[in-house]
Specification:
22 helices; globular; alpha/beta; 510 residues; 5-stranded parallel beta sheet
C-alpha cells in the first residue's frame, strides 16, 4: 500500500512539473499582463508589507504635486549634433562596410550609431546593418521592420553613403557565408571600444583589397573617447535625428499617448479605494500628465542579477537552470550574497519596490502610469502591489485593441519600440533598473531636456533591506536621495557612453 501511495505521489509531482509546460494556456490566469514561465502560484507575498500598508495611507499636498509635474527648467544647454562645418558630400568610397548587430533593440540602436561613425572614419559605404536573432528575445525583425530606412538615409546623405543592399557583385557576402568558415573579408577581432586608428589599421586594408569588409560581432566596438568632434556629433545625429521608427510604430505610439492624455471617461479614486466615473464636460479638453515606468523585470534580468526575489527554492532552481541554459552558468554577480548585491544597488527593483519609490516621491493614486515592459517575471500577481498603489495604470494591451497590436504581436523589438516611443514623450520617465533601455532613454531625454527620474539604486537597496524602517524615515531618505536625480544635466566622464551622457560632446552651452 505504501509503495502504491509513494508511486502515485511521484507521478503527481511529475505531472505538476510537466503539465504547465505541455498546456501553458490552461495554467495561465486570465489577467491584464503576460505572465512568465515562473508560475503565478509561486509568486511570493509582498516583501515590504509594513511600507506598503503605510503607502496606501499617503497624502500629497497640491504644492508637492505641482513640483512633481513641473517641467525641467532651462539648464543652459542646446542640441548641436550637426558639425560646425557645412556638410559636404562623401568622397569616393573605399568600399562597402557590413556590420552584424546582436542584443535587443537599444543595444542594436547604439551599434547602428557606431556603424555610421566607423563608416565615416573609413570613408566607406555603409550597408544597412544586419540584426542577429537574439537567443533571449528571439525576434527576427530587420532594420527596415523597425526603423524608417528612407528617413535614415536622407538625414545622413551629406555625411556618409548608405545602401539598402549590396550590388550583385558582392551578393555572396551574406551572414550564412561568414558562418560556414574563416573568411578574409570578415573581421572578428575588433576589441571592445576600439580606437579610430584600430579601424584604419585593421579594416581599411581589407576594404582596399576586397572592396568589402564585414565586422562581426559588432557591439560596443567603438571608443567613446579621443575621437574627433565631428565623429561624436555624427553619432548623436544618428541617434537623435536619423533613427526614427517606422510609421505604424509612431502611429500606434501616438494613439497610446493620446489615450493617456485624453481618457474617454474620467475616473477618480474614491475614499474606499474604488474607481468611479465622473461626468465633466471639460475633462477631455484638459490633457493629463503621465509617468512612463520601464519595468525591466523579466526572467532574463532576474536570472542575470543573481538576486533573491522571495520565491524560495522553486525560484532559485528555476533561475539557476535558466542561467545554465543562456550563459552556461557564468554570471558575475553570483559570487556575492543577496544582501551584498542589494546594498551595492545591483538588484533590479520589483514592481512592489517601484510602487513604493513612486509613492515616497509624492505620486498619489490619481497618477496615471504607463507600464513599459516585456513579460514580467511572475506575471500579474507580481504586478499586483504596484497596481493597487496606482490603479490608473495602463500598458499596450489595455490601451490598444487586438487589431492595433496585430502588427507588433510576438515581436519583442517592435513591442520595445512602442514602449520607447511612449516613454520618450511621457512627462516623467523612470526605469526600474539600469540597462540598455534605461541608458538610451536617459540620454535621449537629456537631449530633449525632459524630466527623468534616475533611481538611487544603492540607497534604495539599503532602505529595502531595513525591515524596521518606518514610512516617514523611508520617504525622507528617498526624497533626500533623489533631489538631484530628476533630469539634471550630467557631463560625460571618460569611458562613459555618449548615448547616455550626450553633454558636452553633442550639446552646446546656450
Amino acid at each position: 500500500m505504501m509503495k502504491l501511495l509513494h508511486g502515485r505521489g511521484a507521478l503527481a509531482a511529475v505531472l505538476v512539473v510537466i503539465l504547465p509546460l505541455l498546456f501553458p494556456g490552461f495554467f495561465t490566469p486570465l489577467s491584464h499582463a503576460h505572465p512568465s514561465t515562473f508560475s503565478e502560484w509561486n509568486v511570493p507575498k509582498p516583501r515590504h508589507l509594513s511600507l506598503l500598508n503605510s503607502a496606501f495611507q499617503r497624502e500629497t499636498s497640491q504644492e508637492k504635486k505641482s513640483d512633481l509635474w513641473a517641467p525641467l527648467a532651462d539648464q543652459g544647454w542646446r542640441t548641436c549634433a550637426e558639425s560646425k562645418s557645412s556638410p559636404s558630400s562623401p568622397a569616393t568610397s573605399e568600399g562597402y562596410l557590413q556590420v552584424f548587430l546582436d542584443g535587443g533593440l537599444n543595444q542594436q540602436r547604439m551599434g547602428i550609431c557606431d556603424a555610421v561613425a566607423v563608416a565615416k572614419i573609413l570613408n566607406a559605404t555603409l550597408v544597412i546593418p544586419h540584426f542577429e536573432i537574439n537567443p533571449v528575445w528571439r525576434d527576427s525583425s530587420s532594420f527596415m521592420d523597425i526603423f524608417d530606412v528612407d528617413h535614415f538615409i536622407d538625414v545622413l546623405k551629406d555625411d556618409i553613403s548608405i545602401v539598402k543592399e549590396l550590388p550583385d557583385e558582392f551578393s555572396w557576402s551574406t551572414r550564412e557565408y561568414y558562418s560556414t568558415a574563416i573568411r578574409a573579408t570578415r573581421i572578428k577581432t575588433a576589441p571592445v571600444h576600439s580606437s579610430a586608428n584600430w579601424y584604419l589599421e585593421n579594416v581599411m586594408p581589407v576594404l582596399q583589397s576586397y572592396g568589402i569588409a564585414a565586422i562581426s560581432p559588432f557591439s560596443h566596438r567603438l571608443t567613446f573617447d579621443n575621437l574627433p568632434m565631428e565623429i561624436q556629433r555624427l553619432r548623436c545625429k544618428v541617434n537623435f535625428e536619423a533613427l526614427v521608427f517606422v510609421p505604424h510604430i509612431r502611429a500606434l505610439g501616438d494613439a497610446l499617448i493620446s489615450r493617456l492624455r485624453y481618457p474617454s471617461k474620467r475616473t477618480e479614486v474614491g475614499s474606499d479605494g474604488y474607481l468611479r466615473e465622473v461626468t465633466d464636460v471639460d475633462y477631455e479638453k484638459k490633457p493629463k500628465k503621465f509617468v512612463a515606468v520601464h519595468l525591466r523585470f523579466d526572467k532574463d534580468m532576474a536570472a542575470h542579477s543573481s538576486c533573491d526575489f522571495g520565491g524560495g527554492k522553486t525560484e532559485k532552481l528555476s533561475l539557476a537552470k535558466y542561467r545554465q541554459v543562456i550563459w552556461q552558468g557564468r554570471v558575475l554577480n553570483s559570487q556575492f550574497t543577496d544582501e551584498e548585491l542589494r546594498s551595492q544597488g545591483r538588484c533590479p527593483m520589483t514592481p512592489e519596490e517601484i510602487g513604493l519609490l513612486l509613492a515616497a516621491l509624492g505620486f498619489d493614486n490619481s497618477t496615471r502610469l504607463y507600464l513599459a515592459s516585456h513579460k514580467v517575471y511572475g506575471g500579474e500577481a507580481r504586478i499586483a502591489p504596484l497596481r493597487e498603489l496606482f490603479p490608473l495604470m495602463e500598458d499596450k494591451k489595455s490601451l490598444a485593441s487586438s487589431e492595433e497590436r496585430a502588427l507588433i504581436k510576438g515581436k519583442a523589438s517592435l513591442l520595445a519600440a512602442v514602449d520607447y516611443y511612449v516613454g520618450l514623450h511621457s512627462d516623467i520617465f523612470l526605469s526600474a533598473s539600469r540597462g540598455n533601455m534605461h541608458n538610451a532613454m536617459v540620454g535621449h531625454r537629456t537631449y530633449m531636456n525632459s524630466k527623468t527620474t534616475r533611481p538611487n539604486m544603492p540607497l534604495l537597496g539599503q532602505l529595502f533591506l531595513n525591515k524596521n524602517i518606518t514610512w516617514s524615515e523611508f520617504q525622507e531618505a528617498v526624497l533626500e536621495g533623489h533631489e538631484d536625480r530628476q533630469g539634471d544635466i550630467r557631463l560625460r566622464k571618460p569611458k562613459q557612453s555618449i548615448y547616455t551622457y550626450p553633454a558636452p560632446d553633442c550639446m552646446c552651452r546656450a
